[in-house]
Amino acid sequence: LTASSEPEQLTPDDQQLTALKEHVAAGLSRPQKTLSSMYFYDDEGSRLFQQIMALPEYYPTRTEFGLLTQHQAALATALRPAAAQEPFFLIELGAGDGLKTKILLRHLLETNAVFTYVPVDISGAALDGLAASLGEELPELRVEPIVADYSAALQLMASRPGRKVVLFLGSNIGNFSPDDRQAFLQTLAGPLTTNDRLLIGFDLQKDPRFIRAAYDDSQGVTAAFNLNLLTRLNRELGADFDLAHWQHYTDYDPLAGTVRSFLVSTRAQAVHMAALQQTFDFRAWETIHTENSYKFTAPQIEVLAAEAGLRVTEFFTDSQDYFADVVLRP
Ligand code: AVJ
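Above: inputs. Below: predicted complex with N,N,N-trimethyl-histidine.
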């Protein structure tokens, strides 16, 4: 493994803390309190998400894994430059443990593609783990990890010349509100040129009960994942959330096509945050909205792409139409 696989951290810790403080102060001052699911992923949250991906109820990861395995050759052909030796960057937003991506990485290496893998993630620990496992499993791979949120990483990559293939797998796109999703896709598409490619994973609309079960598992791992956000605020903002009086609640709304997750205050309580020098009051059964997880239809995906000035060129699904991996180009 080369020295360059040491993750590059784009945003200093103090700026990150300032952003978290501002986010929490604003989000908990609204009539409907809300916190972004982006903040789930501290090191413990990333570890819990690994556990979620292995749960029997959580179908997206294993479905997409099967999908990528089945279609790896066609996907690689659709993504890589036509000239076999032309170098490119393979940028992955929200790389996590890279389990699914390794299918593509291995295929590209075996077919002599010339590329640098740039995994981007907000969890430094997740990227360290990924770099270490890649060093062992695919030692010939060139890796340049970046610890950053998506927009910071995209800005950095936009300034680099060369062909780009951007991966956004796992239906991470489902976390955006419709407005944010549109803005994000436009930001993503903006710097891309004709020969660049985008691969986006979309979880598809299906049996509502089946979807809901994936976000309310019987072992309570998803509940722990949601509640960990409060533990994080206790640690990083000196908050005094008492986890005995908070619950995980989630539901799927077929009308909006989204799973919504909440933290529910099971009694009237006040929470003080030392770092904000502020106290927040919660009524009994008041909720904090912590996550949206949108599910899509094929026509919606076409519209979404068109509105961002992108064209859908390939649409891969599994045999049950649970999930889609979609190739887009400018
Ligand atoms: C990482 C956004 C794809 O929405 O399915 C899993 C996060 N939240 N269980 C999803 C999540 C609760 C996950 N994504």
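The CA atoms of residues 194 and 330 lie 6 Å apart.
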